[in-house]
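Quick one - inputs below.
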Amino acid sequence: MNEKAPNAGHRHEHDDAADHDHGDGGSELSEMDLRVRALESLLVEKGYVDPQALDILIETYETKVGPHNGARVVAKAWTDPEFKRWLLTDASAAIASLGYTGRQGEHMVALENTPQVHNMVVCTLCSCYPWPVLGLPPVWYKSAPYRSRAVIDPRGVMAEFGVRLPDSVEVRVWDSTAEIRYLVLPERPAQTEGWSEAQLATLVTRDSMIGTGLPATPSDIVQRAS
Amino acid sequence: MNGVHDMGGAQNFGPVAPEPDEPRFHAPWERRAFALTLAVGSARRWNLDQARSARESLPPAQYLASSYYRIWLDGLCALMLERGMVTREELADGRMHEPPARPFGVLAADKVTAVLARGGSTARAVAGEARFHVGDAVRTREINPPTHTRLPRYCRGKRGTVVMLHGAHVFPDANARGTGEDPQWLYTVRFEGAELWGADTSATAVHVDCWEPYLERA
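Output:
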């Protein structure tokens, strides 16, 4: 297959893949799986890639780096005023102090949500996203519906995530056109007085740190448990 | 380039479809395509902006019909072809027919963690001072380069206010052409929703990161 082969569209590819994940792994591989296997074997044969390095890259972003990192940053900011001040004035350093550094998070800015201001982050041109704190972006973040509408109709987008804000709230959108990566600091939910940092981190959702969602509330947690 | 990747403000793409408990990857090939893109890219045969430019240069219909890892994969193949690292025949049958390009800085397994942790800062030291300051009224230039740029179409020729200065950073428009990094002062500029869209918006304001060459005094 050459690299310009027509594409069936991502929904179809994913549906295929979900089947193959649980299939026998040999005879039912999709066209894309076969193409990428051939490419990998070519690049290994030409000495361009070390297959073990690929395994480590995948393991890192599949199991180690993810929104639990960002949740820890947010929960710490909710409980430690000094850290919050640092996060809002020098996010790269504050976040690095918790051990989250590197690729796609070299230049961080934290955006504080308040009762008057709600921030939402997008990359209209590609898929820029703060990997060290949120991991790899979800499919919808990289998709045309989100990239096209976030900057013109953020409230309409939020409604599709079940979020409706009062008309009085100022909605600020941030388009990640450079290497600055934005992390939303959502408001701490009510009725969490006395909660520990670790307890608070369980309320911090990925979407609340992008700005398409709000943190979970204590009653959400009770409902989830029952 | 005024390509289909520049989607801000486009309409009729349908609703956003959040996926509950979304897996990190949706197919085995996505894992490998992701890792191949990072691993081969780390050899610095091309820079970040050239990689973005290659993805944006895919045929428009193909770009719109592709999942994002497919766009990465097709971008990777285009870059390797362009630099003579692989041939079309090799991509078609997955076997080596031509000797590899040398030297090639292979990403070794024991270096991955350090390479990821180091990242790639785009901040650069430059002589002189930034032309604009926080609070300044600016206007984006009306530019339409046929090559890579990071100034989206929806905010060209628009008035805004500087809200942050980030120091000087690698300038993508130059870096993508391979003419050097040409670092430029980088600002975050706030545009009022009405300035960008008139009454047809629910955004109070949209912020865009703009390098100094994108801006003039308003």
